[in-house]
Amino acid sequence: MDKKILLVAAILGVTAIILGAFGAHGLKKVLSVEQLATFEVGVRYQMYHALFLLFIGTFSFLGEKERSIIFYLTIIGVLFFSGSIYFLATNTVTNLKTKFLGPITPIGGLFLVSAWGYLFYAVLSKKH
To answer: Is the whole-model pTM more than 0.85?
Structure first.
């Protein structure tokens, strides 16, 4: 599981860098300032959680089950939160009907908060 967590963290990190560069350079001419700022929020939170997973993957204080729960909460959270933001911010360029994704963003945020909350619980409940 540690290897899987670290590999996903690396994938999230590299794609955050690529998407950040794409947003700053490729989308600058086609999106509004507000849309670019929104897009960047998705990139920022994706990178935060790539780093979070790097930490979780190397944090030996947690058990396998605890790391697994945090991993899946984080992955679902990033996909829902950042993924929906990417589509919502670029809908004027892609012409995709993305309005239905609006409620997905806060659900993703709830998954991310849950991952951090579960980390807090897991550490607090350790006896040693």
So the answer is: yes
Which helix (DSSP H) or strand (DSSP E) does residue 67 occupy? helix 64-89
Q: Answer left, alpha or beta for residue 95, where phi above 0 means left and psi between -120 and 50 means alpha.
A: left
Structural contact between residues 46 and 15, judged by C-beta atoms closer than 8 angstroms: yes
The first and second tokens of residue 69, run together, are 């729960």
Taking only the tens place, the pLDDT of each residue in 36-82 is: 999 999 999 999 999 999 999 998 889 999 999 999 999 999 999 99
From CA 6, how far away is CA 11, in angstroms rounded? 9
Residue 31 is given by DSSP the state S
Nearest to 67 by CA among 13, 6, 14, 128: 6
127's tokens: 């006896």
